[in-house]
Amino acid sequence: MNITVNNQIRTASAGQTLADLINEMGLDAARIAVEYNRDILTRDTLATISLQDGDVIEIVNFVGGG
Amino acid sequence: MIIVLNENKIQVKDNQTLFDLRDQIKPLADVIICNGMPVQSDRILQPFDHVIFIRRGEIPSESELEAFLIARHTPEVHEPLKQATIGIAGAGGLGSSIAIALARAGIGHIIVADYDVVEPSNLNRQQFFIDQIGINKVEALKTNLKRINPFMTVDAEHRFLTSQNLTSLFSEATILVEAVDCAETKAMITSEWLRAYPERPLVAGSGMAGYGPGNTITTRRAMGRLYLCGDGTSAVEAGHGLMAPRVGIAAHHQANVVIRLLLGLDPVEEEC
Predict the structure, then answer these.
(1) N or C: which end of chain B has fewer CB within 10 A?
(2) Distance between CA B35 and CA B47 in Å, rounded?
(3) H or E stretch covering A56
(4) Shared-domain flag, residues B49 and B98
């Protein structure tokens, strides 16, 4: 199935969760904000959401400094 | 004839002299500015001369200070900025520079929160002074903001930001600026704010360490009402610390986003 992550199409496998996707992308779940089909998620829900065909996901990865 | 005194038009008699006007308006003035230049000698005023009388050490009244801001910014810009309440999460390199830019712009009310105190190592980029080392950052910042505009309101919240207190602490703010150091806290603030107040913009900073090109620091809209300022990648690492110029560039991107939002303009694109 196809999903859109930060405006780029990528494939995902059945049963894959958002937390799996974030791991696959090499991101640290503590340092990102995730918008899933227009809903902003909290970190503890990432492992409970199974990806569906056509999902639109935005991920912002923060780096330290301020 | 009409002249402009302290940014207000007034009627004066023809052949009015500058020193005579000073003696009527502010006899103790020790600096006279006429048409943007300090002047030492008397002269006959011409129509629409801009005159300012200054007594060194005297703080202008609230209405005088406001007249100068309105003259610089126009009433259409000044009024929404004066009415605004802006939250700033963090009073370090980003937060102190953002707060000062917003105070100078005439923002009426700032809520700023930080748990930290001013340390010697902060002075390489943060808007504090050597005699403020050891003071709570929010108290030191409030002092500095009040030296710029004594008539603005500053709520200085000396506390650690958590997912429990963030949205209530800034509940009065129509826009929140994220200005913390730690990536995990940036992510927490983003998720909490956008979930609690989907209609209220968040202006965050990410990627401004080092001394790479200034032009790589940009403003973009990321998700919902989140605007992100920075280069997105330059993290703080050993040998790649934060320095005043790039932190200042990112901070002023953030402050400019706040002003554009308050004026109803798109923070990223020029209006057609």
Answers:
(1) C
(2) 11
(3) strand A56-61
(4) no
Residue B64: C-alpha distances to residues B5, B107, B123, B138, B148 (Å): 10, 16, 33, 27, 14
Q: Which residues of A touch B186 (CB under 8 A)?
A: 31, 62, 66
Question: Tell me: the pLDDT tens digits for A8-31?
Answer: 999 999 999 999 999 999 999 999
Q: Where are the alpha helices (DSSP H) in chain B?
A: 18-25, 62-73, 75-83, 93-105, 137-148, 166-169, 183-196, 244-262
What does the alpha-carbon distance between residue B22 and residue B1 come to, in Å, rounded to a whole number?
17
Q: At what angle do helices B137-148 and B93-105 cross, to 10 degrees?
A: 20
User: Are the beta carbons of B271 and B265 closer than 8 angstroms?
Assistant: yes
Segments forming the whole domain that contains residue B130: 75-262
| A27 alpha-carbon distance from chain centroid | 9
Mutate to test the interface with A, among B137, B188, B225 (most CBs of A within 10 A): B188
B71-101 tens-digit pLDDT: 999 999 999 999 999 999 999 999 999 999 9
At B197, which CATH number?
3.40.50.720
Strand partners, B3: B10
Which numeric CATH code is attached to A2-61? 3.10.20.30
CB contact at 8 A, B97 and B141: no
Mutation for A interface: B186, B231, B254, most A CBs within 10 A: B186
Which residue reads 């002023």 in tokens?
A: B252
Res. B272: pLDDT tops 70: no
Residues of B in contact with A60 (CB under 8 A): 187, 190, 206, 222-223, 226, 228
